[in-house]
Amino acid sequence: MMTTEGVELLIHRVEPRDWAAHRDLRLDMLAADPEAFWADPAEARARAAEQWREEIAGPRIHLQARRGTEVLGGIALLPAGYTPEHQIPEDRAHIVSLWVRPEVRGTGISRPLLVAAARLSLDLGRPDLRLDVDAGNDSARRLYERLGFVATGARDPRESNGSYWVEYAIDASALVNG
């Protein structure tokens, strides 16, 4: 936990009973930064409560940064592929969907979310931690590089906007101990 403004910042593992808080954060992130994510905002808005619970149940593990009852941001860890065709090596996990509310950006919310995801990755026996970021998202790229992530050279095209995803990697223990 981290204390800022007199209130502790808690990194909370999202459970199915937290579906409404998860939904609200996810819809806010897709409304504010739709180009930063692979998700379809219209599809997300149309989901029923049970679909949100299913998303939380897997395969991603969702975490939220909370100050009291206020959800300030979130992150998800993908320790296995979405489908049998989408394989992830046994020693690797992927960070997906890091997002912090615009009004609290720059206040130190991202680092504890990333460290918590790295701890979780290590707990799962997956020390090779990866993420993809849009090539044009300079602020995110600077954040990852400041924390020790290194671009791997892998790039995947984004047909939706003519850009590409840039893959970054870090040893999860370096992030936890850094």
Provide the helix percentage: 25-40%
Domain tally:
1
Ranges with pLDDT <50 over ≥5 residues? none
What order do the helices and strands follow? EEHHHEEEHEHEEH
CATH class: Alpha Beta
The CATH homology group name: Gcn5-related N-acetyltransferase (GNAT)
In DSSP terms (H or I, runs of 4 or more residues), the helix count works out at 6
Nearest-angstrom radius of gyration? 16 Å
Strand order of the largest sheet: 1-2-3-4-5-6-8-7
Average predicted local confidence, pLDDT: 89
Keywords: Acyltransferase, Transferase
InterPro entries: Acyl_CoA_acyltransferase, Bact_Acetyltransf, GNAT_dom
Protein name: GNAT family N-acetyltransferase
GO molecular function, one term: acyltransferase activity, transferring groups other than amino-acyl groups
Structural summary, described in words:
- The chain is an alpha+beta fold and 178 residues long.
- It has a single domain, classed as Gcn5-related N-acetyltransferase (GNAT) (Aminopeptidase, 3-Layer(aba) Sandwich), CATH 3.40.630.30.
- Helices cover 32% and strands 34% of the residues.
- It is built from six helices and eight strands.
- The protein has helices at residues 19-32, 41-45, 49-57, 110-123, 138-146, 172-177; strands at residues 2-4, 7-13, 61-67, 70-78, 92-100, 128-134, 150-158, 163-171.
- An eight-stranded mixed sheet has the order 1-2-3-4-5-6-8-7, with helices on both faces.
- Helix 1 (19-32) packs across helix 3 (49-57).
- It is globular and about 40 Å long.
- The mean pLDDT is 89.
